[in-house]
Amino acid sequence: MTDLPGIVVTGGSGRMGQMLINAVQASDACALVGVLERTGHDWVGQDVGIAMGGAEIGVTVSDDAVTTFAKAQAVIDFTAPDATIGFAELAAQARAVHVIGTTGLTDGDIAKLDAAARHAVIVRAGNMSLGVNLLVQLTKKVAAALDEDFDIEIIEAHHHHKIDAPSGTALMLGEAAAQGRGVALKDVTDSGRDGVTGARVRGDIGFSAIRGGDIVGEHDVLFAAAGERIKLTHIATDRAIFARGALKAALWGQTQKPGSYSMLDVLGLNDE
Fold this sequence. Notes:
The chain is α/β, with parallel strands linked by helices.
């Protein structure tokens, strides 16, 4: 037994799941107490260390979220929207911090997460890295300083396995730019251009998505006006940055009151 906060990782067999498992195992500030996978997955019933091709570590992969969450002080979840919504309710019942890196969530999904956050801490972010969250704040400040003579374009690139676009990080950056301008992102979004689209609408925030190879994550925020351009850039080369950020959020959440938080809160960057 240990007095360290117990962490459960959902979707343990995925690339981020395995990265998170390794991050928790390497930390001296918490302990891995559970790993979840979907019913019928080959890993269920195996020791997770062996399932990952290494030595036994004494944690068996389960498909029983209720029992697994009961052992946890925090759940780290980079899965899919439907799974995350279900996990949020169960994590709230267990009073476990729920760290969510899942992307592709709808407004309806987020409303359900907000309901769960009345009972437990939820930290949700489209990107868990320090650098990206600094970029979010810079984007907001630059957008606030420049008028609509500067067009805003957000260009993101990811590996060819990614299934949603724009990325969660691109949407974070879009929200930051919209907040800086004092507008709602949904009213100024311009994405999916194809064919004869006509001239760009003044004040719109554009999105472009690139998918290819093994790109971990690249994001540019371009402010373009006649005669000049400003570009803010973040390039991720190692997914471990996201795992480290998620683990930081799980530990930070141990001392917080129930509610919805972001990585800006975790990192002390939220100026609202």
